[in-house]
Structure formats: structure tokens, C-alpha cells
Write a structure and sequence with these properties.
The protein is mainly alpha-helical. Helices cover 67% and strands 0% of the residues.
């Protein structure tokens, strides 16, 4: 069970996700998020020191959420094809039940690298999937193919990190 502080952090992240999907990342302010939660702006800064830190924590939160789902599928004794189908189902189910998560992940994180320019945060999702022991190359390759239309440059980087030849992602079959 999560502590009260962790529960509040999740509420803040969920509220921020909803506001980002409606107003956009750059048009949403910390006061907007605080107002949506009926809390003071000062109290918000007790949880997240800046909007950039909040943005990175949201990526970790989404990555852990999706990584756990992928791990559960990956641990099943089924074929790679069935695992891939189930992972795609998880993404579509998440897109229907929590569209703000997928919207943020694809539109903000993968296509807006400015927020994540100061370090290796571009690999947060990959690191979180690794922490979840999702290391099935076939599954990760399918995921990279799925994100390639939305974030071609990052997808290409991931494609090469998975051991594929540079420049071959565009020739991969879409799942």
C-alpha cells in the first residue's frame, strides 16, 4: 500500500496528465494543477520542485505502469506472437481507459525532447522496462515499431540499441 505522500503524488500526476491532455504541456502551469486539486501552489512544490521534474516523474509512472503490464505478459508461457498481440491489447486498452497516459507518452514525451534534454531521460522508459525484467527482444522490437510513426528518431535509436542495423527500422513490418 502506498503512503499518503505517494498517494498524493499519484493524484498530482493524474491531474497533471489530464490538464496536459486538455491544455497542452506548455500551457499548463503548476498553479493550474494545484487549483484542480484544491491545494496551494506552495504545497505542490513539496511534492515536485518544478514542472520539468513532474514531467519526468510522470514518464517514470507511466513506464512502470506499462512495464508491469508487459512483464506480466512476458512471464506467461505463450508464443511471442501471442505476447505481442496481448501487449498491443494492453496499449489499446490503456488508450481507451486512460487516454491521457498514452497521449502524454506519445505526444509529449516522445515528440517533445526539450523537457528531457538535460540528461539521459530519453531512455527512462527503456530503463523502467529493464527494471521490470522485460527483456524479450521480440516484444521490445514490436514496441519500437509501434512508436516509430510518432517518434521516428527515438525509435531508430532504440532499434539500433536492440541490435538491429541502423536505417532498417523503416523496412520492418508493422505488427
Amino acid at each position: 500500500m502506498l503512503s499518503k505522500k505517494e498517494q498524493k503524488k499519484e493524484q498530482i500526476m493524474q491531474s497533471a496528465l489530464e490538464l496536459f491532455s486538455v491544455k497542452g504541456f506548455y500551457n499548463t502551469t503548476i498553479p493550474d494543477i494545484a487549483n484542480a486539486l484544491k491545494m496551494s501552489v506552495g504545497n505542490m512544490y513539496n511534492y515536485f520542485k518544478s514542472k520539468d521534474i513532474l514531467a519526468k516523474e510522470i514518464i517514470k509512472y507511466i513506464s512502470i505502469y506499462l512495464g508491469q503490464k508487459i512483464k506480466e505478459i512476458n512471464e506467461q508461457d505463450i508464443s511471442t506472437e501471442e505476447k505481442t498481440r496481448k501487449i498491443i491489447e494492453v496499449y489499446f486498452e490503456t488508450a481507451m481507459k486512460k487516454p491521457e497516459m498514452i497521449d502524454y507518452f506519445l505526444r509529449i514525451y516522445l515528440s517533445t525532447r526539450e523537457v528531457f534534454k538535460d540528461g539521459c531521460e530519453g531512455m527512462i522508459c527503456v530503463n523502467e522496462l529493464g527494471d521490470q525484467k522485460c527483456n524479450n527482444k521480440a516484444i521490445l522490437q514490436e514496441l519500437v515499431i509501434l512508436i516509430s510513426p510518432y517518434a521516428p528518431h527515438i525509435a531508430e535509436e532504440l532499434w539500433v540499441k536492440l541490435g538491429n542495423e541502423a536505417g532498417t527500422l523503416s523496412y520492418a513490418s508493422f505488427p
